[in-house]
Design a protein that fits this description.
51% helix; five-stranded parallel beta sheet
Length: 166
């Protein structure tokens, strides 16, 4: 089984999250005796070692090759906005008919049934205590594999997908 982890990779927080996701997914697959080749772009120093050089076409070709070869994609959609690279990777993956599993851990998902929050939003749109995600990208992910709010739920969904493909 081959996977691709799509997330930002330049800030420490993103790199740490990517490493955690990769570690946990690799562990789950290992525990279930399922081989996993997970591509994590930050681990590809040929194009992502910022002391070296890779131009835009080299980066696009490198990542596209891994997307084409993958069975599934993990798309982390946290942040102020969905990372533009992640949005592009979701588009490519869904065009290639790959399974895309979204991870959205933003705490503003909590309290969706809190009537005070809902009333505040109705009265004044600037009091939005919820979070907006681009609906086109969200729709593509939902139609493909779903969106999960924890790494554990994400891993369970990917593991089920892998077992069904065996």
């Amino acid at each position: 089984m081959k996977g691709y982890l799509a997330n930002g990779l330049f800030g420490l927080g993103d790199r740490m999250l990517n490493a955690l996701i990769a570690e946990k997914l690799r562990s789950v697959f290992h525990e279930n005796n399922i081989p996993l080749d997970l591509y994590v772009p930050q681990e590809n120093l040929a194009i992502n070692d910022k002391n070296g050089y890779a131009n835009s076409e080299m980066i696009a070709a490198g990542d596209d090759a891994y997307l084409e070869d993958s069975d599934f994609v993990i798309a982390v959609i946290d942040g102020v906005e969905i990372d533009s690279g992640v949005a592009c990777e979701v588009g490519v993956a869904t065009t290639l008919q790959k399974k895309v599993f979204g991870l959205f851990t933003d705490t503003r998902q909590q309290g969706r049934e809190n009537q005070q929050k809902i009333n505040a939003l109705i009265e004044d749109a600037t009091e939005n205590q919820f979070v907006y995600r681009n609906l086109y990208v969200v729709g593509k992910i939902k139609k493909s594999g779903g969106i999960y709010s924890s790494i554990e739920d994400l891993n369970e969904a990917i593991l089920s997908f892998a077992k069904a493909k065996m």
